[in-house]
């Protein structure tokens, strides 16, 4: 499935881009950590989902431990995790109070830019295909209408299918989990 894009209008009145339209990525679902581990195990792995989950849990704990010890953690060819802070300023260095001036601690990720696994914005865009959510919704609506009348999108009669005249099931997309923004 392509990367889904929803076009929206900027409605922030004091913005220089007020009234202009932009694209925003829409996710159809969120894959849970357990689902990801199960998915990894299904890629010709000799290890089952439970082993993959155990390894992933240990890896997650170790990454956090190393980050909190002040290290960056390179995650293979995927990229590097690191920490960053949001801080308020003071006039003199001696007035800086870590407990007061540190406002937030954030987990950051810098994607790899190696030849093997270049995950830069430019390369991701080159590898991705895009589809406007509006087009997807319109094609689903047409498919449902065709199913209800017993014809497919090519005009072929499907009323004699095994489903007893209802046509085929809707196959145009993933399940939605939570607020997907598709509506």
Features:
flat, 6 strands, three-stranded antiparallel β-sheet, 183 residues, disordered C terminus, alpha+beta, HU Protein, Chain A
**Count of helical regions:** 5
Q: Going across the major beta sheet, what is the strand order?
A: 2-1-6
Distance between the termini: 18 Å
Summarize the main sheet.
3 strands, mixed
> Average pLDDT value?
77
CATH fold name: HU Protein, Chain A
Can you tell me about this structure?
The protein is of the alpha+beta class and 183 residues long. The protein has one domain (3-149): HU Protein, Chain A. The protein is built from five helices and six strands. The chain has a three-stranded mixed beta sheet with strand order 2-1-6. Strands 3-4-5 form a three-stranded antiparallel beta sheet. Strand 3 (73-75) and strand 4 form a beta hairpin. Helix 1 packs across helix 2. The longest helix has 20 residues, at 49-68. The two termini are 18 Å apart. The model is unreliable at 152-183 (pLDDT under 50).
């Amino acid at each position: 499935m392509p990367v889904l894009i929803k076009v929206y209008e900027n409605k922030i009145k004091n913005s220089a881009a007020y009234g202009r339209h932009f694209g925003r990525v829409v996710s159809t679902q969120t894959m849970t950590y357990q689902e990801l581990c199960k998915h990894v195990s299904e890629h010709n792995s000799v290890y089952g989902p439970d082993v993959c989950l155990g390894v992933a849990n240990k890896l997650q704990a170790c990454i956090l431990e190393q980050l909190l010890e002040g290290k960056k953690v390179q995650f293979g060819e995927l990229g590097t995790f690191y920490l960053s802070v949001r801080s308020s300023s003071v006039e003199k260095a001696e007035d800086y109070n870590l407990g007061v001036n540190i406002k937030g601690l954030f987990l950051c990720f810098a994607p790899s830019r190696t030849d093997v696994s270049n995950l830069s914005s430019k390369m991701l865009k080159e590898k991705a295909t895009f589809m406007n959510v509006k087009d997807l919704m319109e094609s689903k609506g047409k498919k449902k209408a065709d199913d209800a009348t017993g014809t497919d999108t090519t005009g072929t009669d499907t009323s004699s299918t095994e489903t007893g005249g209802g046509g085929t099931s809707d196959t145009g997309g993933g399940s939605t989990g939570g607020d997907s923004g598709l509506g």
